[in-house]
Amino acid sequence: MAGPTAHSWAGGPVNPFKGQREAAIRWTLRICALTSVVGLVLMVAFLLRESLPAWKEAGLANIFAYEWNPDKGRYGILIFLAGTLAVSLVSLLLGAPLALATAIYLHAYARPAWRRVIGKGLEVLAGIPSIILGWLGFTTLVPLVRRLAGGTGMGILPASIVLAVMILPTVATIARDSLDAVPESFAEASFSMGATRWQTLRRVIIPTAWPGIAVAMILGLGRALGETMAVAMVIGPATAFPRNLTTPTHTLTTKIMLEMGESTGVHRSSLFAMALVLLALSMLLILLVRLLSRKAVREFSGGVLTC
Amino acid sequence: MKGKDGFAVKHWRALGLALLIPFLVSPLLLAASGCGGGGDASEPAKKGLKGSLKLSGSTTVLPLAQQAAEMFMDENPDVTIDVQGGGSSVGISNVSEGVVDIGMSSRNLKKEEEGLGLVGHRIALDVIVIITHKDVPVEDLSPEQVKDIFTGKITNWKQVGGPDLAIQVVVRDKASGTREMFDEKALKKEEPKAGAIECNSNGLVRQTVAGTPGAIGYVSLGYIDGTVKALKYGGVEGNQANAEAGKYALSRYLYLFTKGEMGELAKAFIDYILSPKFQREVVAKEYIPVVK
Amino acid sequence: MKGEPVVAVRSAVRSPSGAPPLGEGNGWRGLLEERAAKAARKASMADRAAGLVFKAAAAVSLAVLAFIIGIILVKGLGTAVRPSFLFGRPQAMKEGGGIGPMFISSLYLTFLTTVIVVPLGVGAALYLAEFSRDGRLVRLVRWGTESLSSISSVVFGIFGMVFFVIYMRLSYSLLAGALTLTLMNLPTVMRVTEESIRAIPWSYREASLSLGASRWETARRVVLPAALPGITTGAILTMGRIMGESAALVYTVGIFVRKPPLSPLQPAAPMAANIWHLYTEGALIPDWMRVASGEAAALLVLVLLLNLGAGALARVIRKKMGIVQ
Question: Per-residue DSSP letters for C259-293?
Fold first, then answer.
């Protein structure tokens, strides 16, 4: 689809090398675009290379085993996997209701001025560095949890609270966008039958937007899964299975973060193996998001009210 | 597209300028920070050494190396010495891979590390002291009790003469030289209990112990301050005199590792650390000097 | 729909036969009326309650934000605004240290990364939006970008360590960190730029092409300038993210330096990574908590300025270019 190369439409001299230059530029841009793919491939390749000793030494089954003790050759990551899942799910439990409620407010109840203010507020919240939230958690939240629940004050609870604050903007903005995306005609039809705002939301808008809302929650989960700094400062850490919300434990991210600089040999390789597991988890979530997004498109096309 | 034509060109320049501002401001700030730091620009250079050194490794050796770096750089303004932490294991692997020039370690080489061509230089003797949260009234623990507490056989302070308070064990991470020494000498090669909090620096151990009621841990002598309480080990106080006299068991050497032939700058720096003046003035404060 | 009638039926119209008005105890019609009126009352009560709940939720969200910003600033701004702190030398074992080199590290790193990632991202977005057909390559690129954007920062950090620091022999340096952050932020820049480009009406391009411009000339002279507000916003937002990043930098750039970095090949200590250093190993400094609080406040102020400035700058550019969008 390149423009005319040899002759100008109105006649007159034209750069004879335009065609070549155009092709060269196109290639440059193509290379720019491929950077992300190349980067991803390099990442997977190098992570695999570094983690190979661990896979060889322990084998696939043992990596997902319970016991972690590098001195004895045990590289089971189940504890950390459990920690990651626990912290992510609890943070979603704590943060999603507030985020969804805020999204509904922004979509259906907010005056334009407040919509801008709170929307901007969510953007600002999203931009707050995780290390600052972790620092706040360490200086303010951990002593509070210690006073209320006893023990060290570190563990899944403070970590989930900090994470809930972090995923709040993500879940809220994406949920709001998917609520906004519901065709106005749906709401109009409902109002014309005399339904109240809440009734319309409950029976029409939210059910229609639910794939988008699910995407919002999954993306929030993904963010919580991959968070490192904020969690590392409030989770203990300890290589112990998370028995309850206030015992110190570890997640995949914090284990990698805290031990990468201090490990050698197979121990280090097993940390890379954990990174691969994290990578696989996040790509799985992206797959889920894609499937759900396709479903959302299908729901809107046709414009027929589906009850 | 509406709007003034000339702006199309102007805004690129404006954007470029906006992005360049931090870059332009930095040299000015550089000059400011250089002058604000204590006027070493006015002192004549004593030696003509130039170049840069990178160190990484044990967090126990870190303060010593940083102090030495500061003093060395004051005497040789054209030298840059960079000290990072990471733990003994990473210091050793970094220097063997050539990522840094000198690796700091609070332990000697392990068997698998011996074939890497590394040369060890002892720079100080370090004392490990057992600490607890300030509210724990216990003053002294026998080696047996220490072992049982850290391995989880004793779980409450009342079992060793204290109040009815659960013991929270705090240890270092797996690759720490400090932990290795503690596990070997105090725990007789046994494993610390499963629920112990693992901190990857002396500083974090102290912090965690200081903030958690009922906590017990161990740190290098230089990290003891008013926020934690130091315990005696087997009736012996952990200080330089007792360690030198051989009465205190928990002590070990601190090393600097280099690979192969040392560069001139690295040799000068290590010689500086081993000089009687540095050993006397700095090392002797929190550690035990190896050179008198 | 199940349950009570959703709809409230209310009629003040008298029936044509002159019968008494509805709802006044007249058999089944009255019953229906009553049920409907009750349902309507319940529905409006529920609506009011729901409204309160959602307004409260938004208030709570805002309160959380205010609390976080407030407490960080209250605890640290006093320390941070002093020039002896902001530009002062850090101390390793004594009190009274500053964060001068860290401040410069953050600025330097942000500048370096932005200079690399924005051209790359804009070029990639341009390719996706203007120069390609929706074929296999485009789908591959989109999949790669989406996947990249979902990966945890610590994974980027250790990849940066083994690839840039060790394999490419860059050692701990600003450049290694900048390249790692480029990979991390490429998806964002691409996404924002592509959105801005796609928002430009096709008529702009038509006009340019019909005058004989090539695809590239159109892109350069028409599309990119029109997309500039969006690109600028994306660039500044990315700068904010770079300033706040720490996990990916601890193993690629460094966490503590005594002098400001002069070249991209030197190690540095961006503020966010330095706070981590203070948390883990700063305990030797008697006033480390004060330093960390001050650094956190300084960092927060910078990030907030970037965040709020992005929108403002975009508005200014739009006005100056007279873009109506």
Answer: S---STTS----HHHHHHHHHHHGGGSTTHHHHHH
* Same domain as C104, residue C50: no
| C305 shares contact with chain A (CB less than 8 Å) | no
Query: Residue A85 falls within a domain, yes or no?
Result: yes
Whether the predicted pLDDT of A13 surpasses 70: no
Q: How confident is the model at residue B178 (pLDDT cuts 50, 70, 90)?
A: confident
Q: How many domains does chain C have?
A: 2
Question: What are the chain B neighbours of C257 within 8 Å (beta carbons)?
Answer: 82
Q: Are C208 and C294 in the same domain?
A: yes
Q: Which residues have C-beta within 8 Å of that of residue A177, sequence separation ≥ 6? A: A212
The total of structural domains in chain A comes to 1
Asked if the structure places residue A23 within a domain, the reply is: no
Q: Which two tokens stand for residue B145?
A: 């009790």
**Unique residue bearing structure tokens 């529920």:** C46
Chain B CB within 8 Å of residue A153 CB = yes
Amino acid at B261: E
CB contact under 8 A, C92 and B63: yes
Chains that touch B (3 or more CB pairs under 8 A): A, C
Mutating which of C72, C191, C214 best tests the A interface, going by the most A Cβ atoms within 10 A?
Answer: C214
- The nearest CA of chain C is from the CA of A227 a distance in Å of 7
Burial class of B172 by CB neighbour count within 10 A (0 to 12, 13 to 18, 19+)? buried
Q: CB of C207 within 8 A of CB of B1?
A: no
Same domain flag for C238 and C98 = yes
Rounded to an integer, what distance in angstroms lies between the CA atom of residue C28 and that of residue C18? Answer: 18
Is the CB of residue C111 less than 8 Å away from at least one CB of chain B? yes
Residue of B16, B11, B8 lying closest to C114 (CA atoms)? B16
Residue range(s) defining the domain that contains residue C38: 5-79
Pick C87's closest partner by Cβ from B23, B32, B80.
B32
Same domain, C35 and C133: no
Q: Check whether residue C114 and residue C90 sit in a common domain.
A: yes
The percent of residues above 70 in pLDDT, for chain C, comes to 90
ipTM greater than cut 0.95 = no
Q: Does C57 share its domain with C156?
A: no
User: Using 50, 70 and 90 to split pLDDT, how confident is the model at B102?
Assistant: very high
R_g (Cα) of chain C, nearest Å: 29
Q: Which residue of A has its CA nearest to B93?
A: A264
pTM given for the model: 0.85
Question: Which DSSP state fits B192?
Answer: P
Domain carrying residue A191:
68-306
- Most C CBs within 10 Å: which of A36, A84, A88, A139, as the mutation test of the C interface? A36
Mode of pairing for the β-strands spanning B79-86 and B197-199 = unpaired
Print burial letters for C74-86: b (CB count within 10 Å at least 16), e (below 16). ebbbebbeeeebb
Question: Does the beta-carbon distance from A109 to C140 stay under 8 Å?
Answer: no
Indicate the DSSP class of residue C213: -
Helix H, strand E, coil C: the string for C234-263 is: HHHHHHHHHHHCCHHHHCCCCCCCCCCCCC
At residue A181, the 3 state secondary structure works out as: coil
Check CB contact under 8 Å for B175 and A143.
Answer: no
CB contact under 8 Å between A264 and B211, yes or no, is no
The residue type found at C325 is Q
DSSP state of C207: H
The whole-angstrom distance between A26's CA and the closest CA on chain B is: 22
Look at A2 and A176; give whichever has higher pLDDT: A176
Supply the CATH number for residue A126's domain.
1.10.3720.10
Q: Is the pLDDT of residue A115 over 90?
A: yes
Contacts of B36 in chain C (CB under 8 A): 83-84, 87-89, 98, 100
Residue A38, in any domain of the structure: no
Residue B65 to residue C168: CA distance in whole angstroms: 28
Q: Measured between CA atoms, how close is B259 to chain C, in angstroms?
A: 17
